Amino acid sequence: MQRLSPQQLATLVVLTFAWGLNWPVMKMGVNAWPPLTFRAVSIVLGVPVLALALVVLKVPFRLPRKHWRELAWLTLTNMLVWHVCIILAVRSLSSGRAAILGYTMPIFSALIGALVFGAFLARRAWVGVGAAALGVSLLLWHEFTNLAGRPQGVALALFAACIWALGTQLLRRSRVDVPTLTLSFWMTVITAVVLTTMAAVFESQRWSAPDPAVGWAIAYNAVLIFGYAHAAWFYLARSLPPVASTLSVMFIPVLGVFSGALWLGETLHWQDWAAVGLMVVAIASVLWPARSLAPSRVAA
Question: Count of CB atoms within 10 A of residue 53's CB?
Fold first, then answer.
């Protein structure tokens, strides 16, 4: 486990709060507006915020043509699939439940690292995978037994988490030798274009002027999520090993569950409480630093 610098630790704290509190914000937005449109408008407004950051920090916009293919794959796995699937899942699930399912990402990341990239997965990591699977099973059971359940929302959230996990592994191994802000900017631009096109094709008949609550949710996402959080995440994912970079997600689903309950009045069932505990145990089992070997054992 790599020790975090003060800058990295501060980035993690701000990122955790921004993403954790965004779950009820997103739920509030998609309850009153078409989901793809909400996401598209948020990201389009976030592009100039991110561009301003590049100008102020004097970071170049140029990305050499030789990196365009890799940029496309990184955009697909780190942003596009995640944003499309998770915003549709939030529409059909409670914000807290979507947060728990979406942030199973570190478990998928550990599995992909072990099975695809040959990373070593310790015994306790397999215990964590089992705990995560049990938590997901509890949520699935509740969705199937509740007449108002939306099991397709669960599937979308899990698929989004799995693809994002692959993207995190690819980003850490990226050969794109440009500043992280430059990479983040172009990934955001591409996602904005595709999402806007999808919103126009599938939701244009439902377009209407947003009410103040939706406008506030859009502003939150434009500035804090697309203007800051994604760039901060990409910085961590490129500068730390995949396991260490996913440290920031440990408390995001917990924040999502309880902020949704307090803010939106979402009812918490025992399955939600159990799933929160199991997800924290699962992620901690993967990310918690292992004890160093005793000097005598190392010498032996």
Answer: 16
